[in-house]
Specification:
Among the domains are: 191 residues, Immunoglobulin-like (Sandwich), CATH 2.60.40; 191 residues, Cupredoxins -  blue copper proteins (Immunoglobulin-like). It is built from six helices and 39 strands. It is mostly beta strands and 631 residues long.
């Protein structure tokens, strides 16, 4: 027996040596880890639960040396926080990362046109960014999705240093849901999250309990995050995290600063491990999926041993804001060819393994131009592997779960009959005048007398809607620190319309609004060719395209707080801003875009208090009905 163990150890050592030398890692060789569960509930809300941010060493893959990361309570991902609805808690997010700690991420920007793409491991000979290496541990935690006051929301500027605590209170007065928490520090969120500062948060309630969904060991969080890895002087993987992006304009005339693309890495981690496997029974399982990546949008497919899609095994039962009204079958057909999940989106999935005893199924990331499981380097999918499920062979597993036809009897659709205000937000192409080479968020207000406005003019956009009428809008803000644009009455409904002026549909911004849950009201196709980036406005109206209908996907019909806005689309969402007052943010959840300016504030206050506002320091409003109108 000793000889056998010795030969196995020698074989693994050879595998590690070969893999590190070649830069290739073997998939599905490490078991899936499950974050610890933390239940901070107490009868005394004054009792705080401390969650300390600490340096930690993580083994991302058996063929790699340990990787230095930062984790919540020393765990990557952080512990799964679990509470009951209405169970108010207080958390002290305490920064315990010593001042002298090394920043765990190496950051480089590879010149555009480099022979190897940004998803190739290693630095391509580029020197690390010394300014990133010198970053202190300056952190602030945002509980993404939570309805809590502005002072508890994790305002980006209110980050803390070593020894200080960020004190936050969460009422948790929300239907059963999966939120998640992550760092949100101003300017450096992309690197702080990259270090490992993310985790998931579950709210339970009686309605969910009554469904008797798979639970215990058969309910598993899956936190996806793509990463790149640095190499040593010999080209071998050294385990160090690498934030590697491509510079698209190294000599930007407006700012003199380089403009880099959002980060996508070759290695997918699930719960902090590269391409793990999970041993499962031949039974129903519930997976709480969140995309914790900086910028990668996954197109997930479940495949069998022969790389063929497995139809019918997956049912989606929830999204960002909780349970869907009914289960959505995932058959990987034309209606829902993949499970597309953008950064910060969540999916509550059931997978039925009962017909797959003794088999292995794999979750892969499908490239835009290839079959499932096939590398598609042209679309940044160097390695399609995500994780493997190894189904037990017993065939006799006890499982009494039955999929319900209706999931949430409390779900109520929002309709246009509800009194509501309108906002128009424009997402600009990177080359737009005054943008410094980056895409921006423009808040727009409708012009009452269009004849008084010259067209084309910087910041002026004309829009021809489905009714054939042309409306003129003027930009009222474009950067985070511009004057406040949106002030909203607490308890009011608003429709926010996001118009992406990029011509290419693959230029997608996942937009996130803090505090509120929304429902998607519709996607409309628009011809954005009338927008002139050199002018910063339209030469001809942006036209509604009646010939290109874009139906909402079945799994988009629940409550959402992150919405994908592809180029050439206007997305309309409606929600109620209730449950809290304060100053909040909305932003693109591509973290590189967020850090570089695609973020704006808004304020929620009592409607009664708004009557006494004279506009000084606050944006346009009309009892919650201000701002630009669209749709």
């Amino acid at each position: 027996m000793t000889d056998i163990i010795g030969r196995i150890a020698d074989g693994l050592a050879d595998l590690v040596t070969d893999a590190r030398a070649s830069g290739e890692l073997a998939p599905y060789v490490a078991p899936l880890t499950v974050p610890p569960v933390l239940r901070p509930g107490s009868d005394d809300v004054r009792q705080e639960t401390e969650i300390a941010l600490r340096p930690t060493w993580v083994r991302l893959h058996p063929q790699l040396p340990p990787t230095l990361m930062w984790g919540y309570d020393g765990s990557v991902p952080g512990p799964t926080i679990e509470v009951r609805r209405g169970e108010r808690i207080r958390i002290a997010w305490t920064n315990r990362i010593p001042k002298e700690s090394e920043f765990p991420v190496t950051s480089v920007e590879v010149p555009n046109g480099t022979p190897r793409p940004s998803t190739q491991p290693g630095r391509d000979g580029v020197e690390p960014n010394k300014d990133v290496a010198a970053l202190p541990a300056w952190t602030v935690t945002h509980l993404h999705g939570a309805q809590t006051g502005g002072g508890n929301d994790g305002w980006a500027d209110n980050a803390v240093g070593f020894g200080d605590a960020q004190l936050s209170e969460y009422p948790n007065d929300h239907q059963a849901v999966q939120w998640w928490y992550h760092d949100h520090a101003m300017n450096i969120t992309r690197w702080n999250v990259h270090t490992g500062l993310y985790g998931t948060y579950l709210v339970r309630d009686d309605e969910e309990d009554a469904l008797h969904l798979p639970s215990g060991e058969r309910e598993i969080p899956l936190l996806l995050a793509d990463r790149n890895l640095d190499t040593d002087e010999d080209g071998r993987l050294n385990g160090r995290l690498l934030h590697k992006t491509v510079i698209v304009d190294p000599k930007n005339a407006e700012t003199g600063k380089p403009v880099s693309l959002p980060f996508t890495g070759p290695y997918t981690t699930v719960n902090g491990r590269v391409w793990p496997y999970a041993d499962v029974d031949d039974a129903w399982y519930r997976f709480r999926l969140v995309n914790a990546s900086n910028a990668r949008i996954y197109n997930l497919v479940l495949i069998d041993e022969d790389d063929n899609p497995v139809p019918g095994a997956i049912k989606q039962i929830g999204s960002d804001g909780g349970l869907l009204p009914r289960p959505v079958p995932v058959d990987f057909d034309e209606a829902l060819p993949t499970l597309t999940i953008a950064p910060a989106e969540r999916m509550d999935l059931l997978i039925d393994f009962r017909a797959f005893a003794g088999r292995r199924l794999r979750l892969v990331n499908k490239g835009a131009g290839e079959a499932p499981g096939v590398p598609d380097v042209a679309n940044d999918v160097r390695y399609p592997q995500v994780m493997e499920f190894r189904v037990g062979e017993s065939g006799e597993c006890e499982d009494s779960f039955e999929l319900p036809e209706i999931l949430s009897g409390s779900f109520r659709p929002i309709t246009h009959d509800i009194p509501h205000g309108h906002r128009l937000i424009v997402l600009t192409p990177p080359a737009t005048k005054g943008g410094g080479g980056h895409p921006e968020i423009w808040e727009m207000a409708e012009v009452e007398n269009p004849g008084d406005v010259q067209v084309p003019t910087d910041g002026v956009i004309q829009l021809r809607g489905a009714d054939g009428k042309v409306k003129t809008y003027r930009r009222i803000s474009r950067t985070f620190n511009d004057g406040l644009g949106f002030t909203i009455a607490e308890g009011s409904y608003e429709q926010w319309s996001f118009l992406n002026l990029a011509v290419q549909p693959e230029v997608t911004h996942p937009m996130h609004i803090h505090l509120a849950d929304f429902q998607l009201m519709g996607r409309d196709a628009y011809d954005a060719s009338g927008f002139d980036t050199a002018v910063g406005g339209t030469r001809a109206p942006i036209e509604f395209d009646p010939d290109r209908r874009i139906p909402l996907a079945p799994n988009e019909r629940g409550l959402k707080d992150v919405f994908r806005v592809p180029g050439g689309q206007l997305l309309r969402v409606m929600g109620r801003f209730d449950g809290a007052y304060g100053r909040f943010m909305y932003h693109c959840h591509l973290l590189e875009h967020e850090d570089m300016g695609m973020m704006r504030p808004f304020v929620v206050m009592p409607a009664e208090a708004m009557k006494f506002d004279h506009g000084a320091g606050h944006g346009g409003h009309d009892g919650g009905h201000g701002g630009g109108r669209a749709g």
